[in-house]
Each structure stands twice: as structure tokens, then as C-alpha cells.
Amino acid sequence: MKITFILFGLIFLWSCSSLTNSERQEGTLIEPEQLKKDVDYAYTKLKEMHPQLYRYITRKDLDFKIDSIKQTINEPLTPTQFYFKLQPVITSIREGHLSLMIPFEKLKREYGGRKLFTYFKYYIKDDHLYIISNKDSIQNIKPGTEILSINNVPISFYISKYRKLISSDGRNTTFTPYYLKDMFFVFFSMENGFLEQVKIETLYNNKKQTFIIERDKQSEAEKAKSQTQANGNFHCPMNRNFKFLDENNSIAYINIKKFSNNKSDRFYKNTFERIKEAKSDYLILDIRNNYGGSLQEINNLYSYLVSEPFTLIKPSRLNSGYTPLKTNYFKKSSPLEYALKGITYPTYFFLKTLHTYKGNDGKFYYKIKADNVTKPNKNAFHGKIFVLVNGGSYSASSIISSKLKFDKVATLVGEETGGANDGTVAGFYSYQVLSNSKLTLPIGLLLVNPNITLTNSQRGVIPDVTITETLQDIINKNDVQLAWVKKEIEKEKARKIK
């Protein structure tokens, strides 16, 4: 018992000091030789654990990039400066889930959630950044306004720089604009700090204007608290939505923002019971701007879309039989969690080992539920299915889209998905901390391929019907992709009547 109290005490002291150490580290200049050791360490761990490191880049080219970056490190850098140097090399591997974690915890705490750039919603096209929404009517800036510069620095300069920080699967290009619009001002704040105000130069209807945008005085947390007190409740946006699009309930529509697996079983059970009861003829599954998530959820969803038993993914390959044991079991644990995990670690070790096996090809694989044969659900939909996809359909969204297209279960409408047609490396991760810069490199350990004939195209899932939206479509909330599907359904209904 005494040893347990000592253990708790040590863990508590370590957890309290880690935040201080993190803050100190963010502003520390690190010597070039130490940073070069971090580069070598990162590359060593990638070669040791990543199951598909040279799929989109040759070993020769990656070796050259690693050597080149080390030659450019000739002066001390902060961790953030080092991030901007190393991250473009990581993205050149072209594995979308492989990316350094962003090092600016201290700045986020100082910022406290107070709005500056998040007053607006954005759209990126080539080297241009547009405001598409200004819900609070800040300075009466109109949707469709282009931001030309921030504090006299051209937006094109930032876009060119930040684009190199975003990983995408293979030769895919559709993912970057979607993710960059979400990450643009995160990268900007990493470089420039959380400023209290900025000057932006804009262009709207061929007229240039300059605005000074000031940071909101009240934090998001304070606003949420006051709103909760006023309303007596707190509204969280729903991750999944279902509705019928017509009066006789013949068209069912499901929108999934993320495959989080949270309460998903109940949602699909209730939804498909209602669709079956309504005898709907058509189902529209909208997974646009869905960055992915749980394989278990998409496996369950797929069981509601097919009439025959299926296997969603191929066996998931590992780089070695040892990599499942390198998943940082104790990462981000509270003192209590740390102690409890110490007790349960033998069970964890046993299960990881139990699920790891060597295939007939001599390679190692990890057994997961989605590579088993799954039966169709009793309430599976048997009508016509349309799936809406775009460049924001990524990871698990691409896997289910690829499988649906290959099995000819659905008609895909929209634009090429942001995730690869042939799968990606993700599953679970080993979080490698670079010892000098303290940057974290999460390395995916499982090569996850949909159970299809692989195309080796290095592209996303290409829709059956390609329809892209314009800036004006977005501003006007004119959903051209959904409109096309509804029109196609009306045509089919008319043909049936004849």
C-alpha cells in the first residue's frame, strides 16, 4: 500500500511538471546537432514501424530529403521553427495520416478560445482565400470577400507555405483545400502567436478595402457558460442526422459528419427501422466533409446497405510482429489511469499478441473485426443508394466509398475523395517523442486496405458522377450535388410511371 501511495505521488509530480516543461520547451532554442539527431530518430522509427513507408516515395528520394534537411539546419531553432522545417519532409512521404503534432500548447492557453479568425468560415481555391460566412456580421464583411493579405503579407505566400505542411494520400489533390481551410489560421498562429488584432486587405466586387479585426474579449468557454446559465442547457451539434426529403418518405437522407462510433449502433438501428417501415425506395448517404474515424462504425453501416455477406477490409498488415506493442499504452494518462493501466498491462500485452499473426506470405498482420465476414442486417436497405462525396471525405469515409463503388452497391456523386481509393496506414499509433525538440510524431501501424481489387492509382475514390461546387454555390447554399441526385430520382420516378 505504501509503495502505491509513493507511485501516485511520483506520477502526480511528474504530470504537474510536464506542463511547465512543455511551456519552457516551446520557446527554447535547440542546437543544430540536437535537431539533426531528432531527424535521424524520426526516420529510424518510421523505417522500424511504418508498414508502407516507400509506397509513394522511393527510398532513394526520401534518404535524399532527410540528408538535405539536416544540411539546412545550421543554427539553433525553436520547436515551432523546427516543425516548419521537418513537417514538409514528413508530408513528402504522401501518407495522409502521417504528420507531426502541432507544438503550441502554451499559446492556446493564452488565447483562451477568444475569437479572431474564427468569426468567419473560409473557402480556398488555388492560391486564394475567401470568406464564405460572417455569422456575427463583423464589420459588415460580405460572404464572397477575398482576403488578399494579413498584416501586409500576401495570402498566396501563406497558402504556398502551409500547403507543404499537409499530408495527403498518394497523388490526391482534392483533400488539401478542405483541410487547409481548417488549418490555415492554426499554422498562422503558430508562426505569429495569438495576436490581439490583425489588418486584413480584402477584395469584393472589384473594390479593395482594409479592415482591422480585433480579438473577441470574451472567451468561448465564458460564452458557453453564460449561455448555459441563460438557457439551462447546452446544445451540441449532432454527429449524424436523418430525415426524409419528400412528403411520402420515399427518399431517405442520412448525413454523417464523423464516424466516431459514439452511439452509432443505436442511431443506425433506429434509422433503418424507420426507413424499412416507410418502405423508402431511395437512400442518400452524405459523407462529404467527413474526415473518417471508426472502422467498426463503417463496418456496421455497410451491413445496412447490402443483401449478401461481405468482408469490408483486407487483413491489416504490420511492419513487424512487435509493432502492436509500441502503441504508447500509458500516453496521456492521469495519475489514477497510469496506476490502473499498470495493473491491466499484462492483459493488454496478451490481447495485442493474440491478434498478431504471420501470414502465408511471411508478413505480419493484425486481426480486427472489420476483416471478418459480416452478415447483412435484418433491416438492411434494398432500394437504390446514392453516396455524396468530396475532397473532405477522408480515411474511413474513403474506405467505405471505395468498397461501395467496387461492389456496385451505390452510385457515388460529387468529387474525388480526399482519402485514397486503395486504403491508408492508420488503425492505431505509436507516438514517438523526438527527445530534443519534444515534437511528437504519431506513426500509424496498420496498413488498412478495403476488400477490393486494388487499382494502384495513387488517387482517391473517383465518383461515378463528378459534380463540383463553385464559390457562389457555397455562398448561396446551393447544394448542386444533392440537387443532381434529387433530380435524377425524379427522372427515375417519372420513367417508372410511364
Description of the molecule:
The protein is an alpha+beta fold. It folds into three domains: 77 residues, no CATH class; 114 residues, Roll (Pdz3 Domain); 207 residues, 2-enoyl-CoA Hydratase, Chain A, domain 1 (Alpha-Beta Complex). Helix content is 39%, strand content 18%. It is built from 14 helices and 17 strands. Strands 1, 2, 3, 4, 5 and 6 form a six-stranded antiparallel β-sheet that branches. Helix 1 packs across helix 11, helix 6 crosses helix 7 and helix 10 runs parallel beside helix 12. The N terminus is likely disordered.
First-residue to last-residue Cα separation: 81 Å
Unreliable stretches: 1-24, 228-236
Counting DSSP H or I runs of 4 or more residues, the number of helices is 14
Secondary-structure content class = alpha+beta
Report the helical percentage: 25-40%
Number of strands: 17
Spatial shape: globular
Overall mean pLDDT score? 87
CATH class of the largest domain: Alpha Beta
What percentage of amino acids are in beta strands? 15-25%
Number of domains: 3
Looking at this structure, what is the CATH superfamily of the largest domain? Answer: 2-enoyl-CoA Hydratase, Chain A, domain 1
Give the CATH topology of the largest domain: 2-enoyl-CoA Hydratase, Chain A, domain 1
Radius of gyration: 25 Å
CATH architecture of the largest domain: Alpha-Beta Complex
Give the biggest sheet: 6 strands, antiparallel
